[in-house]
Fold these 3 entries.
Entry 1:
Amino acid sequence: MTRSTDAKEARLKAVRRGMRDIGAAAAIFGLSSNLRYLTGFTDEPGERLLCLIVGCADEPTFIVPELYAAEVRARTSGFVMRVWRDGETPEALLSGAAKGLSGVAGRILLDDTLWSTFALSIQRAFAGREFGLASEVMEGLRLRKDEQEVGVMQRAGEIADRAYEAVTSQKVAGLSEIELAGRLEAEMLAHGAEGVAFQTLVASGPNSAMPHHRAGARRIEAGDVVILDFGCRVAGYCSDVSRTVVCGDAPAEVERVYDAVRRSYVAARDASRVGTPAEAVDRAARDVLVKAGYGEQFVHRTGHGIGLDVHESPYLVEGSDERLEEGMTFSIEPGVYLPGRFGIRVEDVVVVTEEGERPMTHAPHELKRVA
Ligand code: CO
C-alpha cells in the first residue's frame, strides 16, 4: 500500500470518527476540494451528479456518471462504484443508498459547495432525514496541514515567486492588465504549476484602489501603481501572493502608504504565533494602519486560510477567537485603497510552526520599480 493510500485511509477514518462524534449517519461529497482531500480525485462540477457517500459503517460508495467511470477507477482505490448512464438519472442509485442507510440513525451531511440541484435530489431520496453541512467535520480536519501538504504549498509558492521575478524584470508599460495577467499565468505553468489557483488580478492606476479588481483592458502607463495578486496549484494546493509595483517613479505619497502597509504586514507576521487568537493578528495589522491615518482605507480582513481552497478557515478577522495552531496556513495581506487614485497591498501565505511563522513566498518586500 502506498503512502498516499495510507493517508487517504487515515482521512476517511477521521471523517467517520468526526461523524460519530456529532451524530451524523453519512456525509455526501460532490466534485469539490473535500472530495480531492478524501480520494485524490476531483474535477469541475457539471450537470451530471458525481458524488461520494461516506457512511459510518459500510464502504464508501461513489455514484459516478459513466463517462467518468474509467478515470475514477484509475485514480482512486478502496471505493465501491455505482455507475449511471446518460439517458438515465442517478435517482435510483440515490434511493438505493438511502435505503442502505435507513437503519442508521443520524443526520446526513452535505458537501458545502454541492450544487442546489444535487442537494435537492439528495434531500428527496433521503426524505425524512435531517441534514447538515460536511464542513462540521471537514473544517477541523483540513485546518492543520501535514508535512506533505506544507511541502506542496511551498512548491506552489516557489513557482509564484519565479513567475513574479520573470514578469517584473521585463517591460510592463504598454501592456494591458489582461496581457500582464496572461504572462504571470504562462510563467507559472511553465515552471510546473498544474493550473492557476484563481483568476489572476492585475489592477493598475486607479483600478488598484479596488481590492478585487480582476484584470481588464486598461493599458499600464508610466507613473501607475500596479497590484499583482496571483497564485497557482500544485497537487491541488494553492499559493497566493500579492506585490505592488510602480511603473517608473513613485510619487512621495505612494512611498508613504507603501511603508505603512509594509509595517502593518510585519506586525501581523510578528503576531502569528501558536496560541494567538486569529483576531489578534488582524488587530496587529490594523493598529499600524490606524496610527498611520489609513484605518478607514483598510477595507478587508487581514487574511484567510488557504490549502485545497484559496479561501478556507482560519479567517484573520475581528470576532474570530480561533487560536492559531501549528500547521495552519493563511495569508497576511493588509492593504490601503484610496478610491480613484491608487491602492497598495502586500501578501504572503505563511505556515505557523512552533518556532514561529514561515512564509511560502519570498519575493522582496521593497517597493519595486518596473519599466
Ligand atoms: Co489572498
Note: The first strand starts at residue 24 and ends at 29.
Entry 2:
Amino acid sequence: MRKKAKVVKKGELYFPNQEFKKRALIKDKAVYRKAAKNPVKFWEDLAKEVNWYKKWKKGFVHKPPYFQWFVGGKINITETALERNLKTRRNKLALIWEPEPVTERARYFTYYDLFREVNRFANALKKLGVKKGDRVGVYLPMVPEAIISMLACARIGAVHVVVFSAFSSKALQIRLQDTKAKVLITADGYYRRGEVIHLKQNADKGLKDTDVKKVVVVKRVDNEAKMRKGRDLWWHDLVKNESDWCESAVMDSEDLLFILYTSGSTGKPKGCCHVCGGYTVQANFTAKWIFDLKEDDIFWSTADVGWITGHTYGCYGPLLCGSTFIIFEGAPDWPTPDRWCDIIEKYGVTTFYTAPTAIRMFEKYGIDLIRRHKLETLQVLGSVGEPIDEAAWKMFFKEVGKERCLLVDTWWQTETGGILITSLPGVGPFKPTFAGLPFPGVKADILDEKGRSLPANKEGNLVILPPFTPGLLRTVYKNPKKFLKTYWADYGKKIYFTNDSALKDKNGLIRIVGRVDDVIKVAGHRLTTGELESAIALHKDIIECAVVGRAHDIKGEVPVAFVVSKKKKPVKKLEKEVIGLVRQEIGPIASPSKVYFVRDLPKTRSGKIMRRILRKLFTGEGLGDLSTLANPESVDNVRKIIQKSK
Ligand code: WT7
C-alpha cells in the first residue's frame, strides 16, 4: 500500500507533495514553457509517440475557420490502443466490467482478449457490408460490447455514432437519419436501479424511416426481445465463427473517426466531427498527463459511453495509455448509496473521474457513509461537466480523497474532444472552483465583447486561439453553416468561441462561470432549452412556451417550462402531457422539474421572449429595467404562479 502523505496547502492553493511529485509523469513547468514556444512542434513531438503507418507531411494547416493536423499522416487508433499493448501488456487487464446486480459476476478482458473480441466483431461488421467511411449507430448501455463496438468500427474505418441509451427513440431516430447509418448495434436491455430497461423496444421505434438494414443485438438481460427476421441478428451468433484477426484500415489523419451529437443553441442537436490523427494524439496525452496514468493505475470514469467523456476517458484514452479501466453498468448509488465506494475498494481504483452532480449526491446520503470507507488506493480525483462549487470541491477533496489525493477539475466540451483546461497533478496549483491552467500547448484567453483580452479577475468570453488543439472538432456533420455560426462568428474565423464565460486569477488559473448560450447542464448532461421548447411546442393545445434552467441542489440545474395554453384543461393533465412529450422527444433526463401555465410570457417589443427575466425570477436577483417589455404586466402574473405552486 502506498504511503499516505497529505496534499500540500499554501494559502488558498494546493500542490502535490514530494512523494507524489517524485513519481509523477510531469513534475514541473518546463513542459508548459516548451509547448508555449512552439505549440505545433509540441504536438508533433507528442504525435511521434503514437503508432502511424506513415508520418505526416505538415503538422498544422489553417484555412480559417477550417484547420487540419498531421496532414498526410496515415493512422488507425486501434494500432496504438490495442496492437501496441500486445507487446508489453498482452496479459494485463484492459477492461473490467462491473454489472449493476451485485449478484452477477464481473467480466474481465486482458489486452489480448479485447484485441480478439474487437477483431471478431470488426469482421462481423464487414460481413454485414460495413465499409470504410460508413456510419454505424451504437445504442448500447454500459456493457463491454459498447467498447468493443466503438473499437471495431475504428478498426475498419467505419464512423461510430454513439447514442446515449437513456435517450428516447426519437432522439435515436434523428441521429440515425442525419448520419444515414446502415447498421445499428443495440441490446435487448439493461439494468438500472434494479429494473430491466427494455432497450430493444426503444431501438425498434427509433429505426422507423431510417436507412438501417441490419441490427446487431447484444443479449444482456434475456427478456425475450422481439427479433425481426432478416434484419435483427444476435451479437453472439454473429461473432461465433469469426476470425480473431482483422486487418486495420489505413486511415488518413483527417478522416472521420466518430460523430457525437451534442446540444447547441437551437433545437436540433449538432453532430460534432472528430478525426483520426488529432484525436488519437490528444486523447492519449491528456489522459496520460492529467490523470498521471502509470502502469499500475486502475482508472474509473463514471461517465456513460453516450457522452464525450465516455469516449475519450472511458474508452480510447485509457487504452492508448495501456491502462486498466472500469466500466459500470448501473447507478453509483444502487443498490446501496455507497456502491461507488465498494467499486473503488473492490478493484483498488487509483483514479476516479466523476461529475459534481454525483459528488453532491454522495454528500446528500451522508458523510458518515463515506467515512466508513478508507478508499486508500485513490491517488487522483477528477471532476467534469459543470462548475464545481466550493462545498462540493472540499467534500470531494476531504472526504473522498482524504486530503491525500490531487483533485483535477477538468474543463472541456464535446467539441474539444479532450480536456483543455486543468492543472496537472504533479505540478499544480489547484484552487477550489478553478479548473486551473490550460493544458500545455493550449492557448486560451478571456475576451470582452469587442475581442479585447481581459485582465485578471474580469469575467468574459472564453476562447481558444490558434493552433487550437489536434482534437478539436473539424465541423458539424453536414452543416458547415452551423459550425461557422456557433464557434467562429463572434470573434472572426480565427478564434474558437467556447460559448462559456470565465475569468482568470492573477496566477493565470481559469475559473469557468457558465454558459452564455441556452445550454443548460442537468446532472452534468448537456441540453438546450431550445430542444425542450421544440418538444413542448408539438402539443396541439400549446400556443407558446419558454424553458429556462434553475438552480438545483444535486443536479446543478434543472429545466422548468413556462407554457401558454389554448385550452383550459386540468393543469395536472396538461403538465403530464408536456412532460410526456419531452421524454418522448429527448428522454427522461430532460423532463422539466415543473411546468408553469401562464397567461403570457414576457416579451420585447419585437416579440422576443425574455428568458433572462424568467431565469431571474428564481435567483432572487433584481429583474432590472422592465420598461423595454411589450407586456411588463406578464412578469407579475408569472411571479404569482410560481409562488402559488410552491
Ligand atoms: C460544457 C460542455 C466535456 C466533458 C463533459 C461536458 C461545461 C465542462 C467543466 C468544468 C465548469 C464545465 C462547460 C462546457 N463544463 N467541464 N470542469 N467546469 N464547466 O461536455 O456536455 O459538451 O459540455 O460543460 O459549460 O462548455 P459537454
Note: The first helix runs from residue 18 to 23.
Entry 3:
Amino acid sequence: MFLCLTFAEKKLILKKNSMNSQQTTDNRQQTSTISRRRDMTSIQKMNTMGFDVVAKHFYEINSLIELDELIKKNIFDDDKFLILGGGSNILFSDEYFDGTIIHSNLKGKTIFDSQQSTDNGQQSSFTTVRCMSGEVWKDFVDFTIKNNLYGLENLVDIPGSVGASPVQNIGAYGVEVKDCIDRVHTIDLSNGSRVTFNNEDCHFAYRDSIFKREENKKYFIVSVDFKLKTKGELKLEYGNIKDYLLKKNIESPTLSELANAIKDIRAEKLPEVGVVGSVGSFFQNPIVEFNLFQRLKETYPDMPSYPNDKGVKIPAGWLIDKAGWKGHKENHVGVWDKQALVLVHYGGGTPKEILDLMKKIQDSVFEKFGIEIKPEVNII
Ligand code: EPU
C-alpha cells in the first residue's frame, strides 16, 4: 500500500505515472490522504431536489487509495450505503438517511490519440476521452465541444456527474449516452479489484443499465471512456431543434451552434439547476399496448406517440398536462409550468410533500387514461 512505501518508492511511482499518459488520471489519484468519515452531514447540496437530508455517515472519495481503505474497513459490507454522484436522479424519501453515503470526487480527463475505425463500411476517425466519475457532466460535455469532438452535443446541460451518466443511460434530443460509451472502469467493492465493462456488458436500455440494477451496489464507477468522432454528423431531427436553428438563420449548424441551441431550448423548458429544485424528468415515458393506444387516439387525436418494438411510447408530460397538473403548486412543491414531466421543490419543503404529489398525479393519470406512470427518479 502507498502509505507503507518509502519516499524513494513513492518518487518512483510518481515518475512512472508522468511517463505513461494512459495512466495519468487514475494514478494521480493515488497521492492523496485517507477519507475522513463525517457524521450527521447535510447532503442538501448533493441532491438537485434540494431537500435538506442528513446522512448518518458520509465519505468523500478523492483517490482510489481512499476507496481501497474503505473496502478494507468493510464499509461496503453494510447494506445501508449509497454511492452518490451529483444527486440529480435521486429522491430521498426521508430527511434522515440512516446509512453511509459515498461521494465520488475523482477528477481528471484524458484525451487519447485519434484512431481510425470502420462504421457501416464507412471509414471514420475517433478519439477516446477518459473522464473520472466525479467530474460534472455538463462541464465535461462543454470540454468535448471545445475540443471539437462529436457525439455528446445533444446531451449538454444535463445536471449530474459523469459517473452517473452510464447508470441510467442519460438521454435527450434523440441521443443516449450509450451511443458514445466505450467502457466503464469500476472497482469491485467486495474485493477491491478493477473490473472494466465494455458497452455490451452494461446492458443499456431506455434510462437503464446493469448499474441501475443488481450491480448498483457491487461496483464503484471510477471512470468512463467515451468514443467520440473527430468529424461527425449532427443529429437535428428531434423535436423543434431545426425550427429553432432556422429562426436564427442557421441551416447547417456547427458543433457549438447546435450545442448552444439545445442549451437555449432546455433553458426555456426546464428549471435552472441550483435555483429551483428538480430531478429533470420525474416520470418515465410509459410504453402502452397498441390496443389501448388506438382507443385513446380516438378520444385524443392530438396525443403525441412514438411506436417502438415494445408498443407505443406516450409522453408522460403530455398525459400529466392533459390531466390538468401543469403549473400546479401545493405547499413547497409543484409541477413545472413549462414542462409537466418535471416536479419541482421551491425550497423549505420535505420529501414527503413531493411523494404525496407524485401519488396524486399517478392516480389521476391512471383514472383518466388507464396508464400507469412510473417514476424515472430513483427513490431511496
Ligand atoms: N408535452 C406536453 N406538455 C408538457 C410536456 C410535454 O404536451 O407539459 C408534449 C410535447 O409537446 C411533446 C411531447 O410531450 O409532444 C414530448 O415532450 P418533450 O419533447 O419535451 O420530451 P419528453 O418526452 O417530455 C424527454 C426526456 C427528457 C429530455 C427530452 C428532450 C424522458 C423521460 N424525458 O422528455 O429528459 O430532455 O425528452 O429530449 O425520456 C431527463 O431525463 O431529466 C429529461 C429532462
Note: Residues 1-32 have pLDDT under 50 and may be disordered.
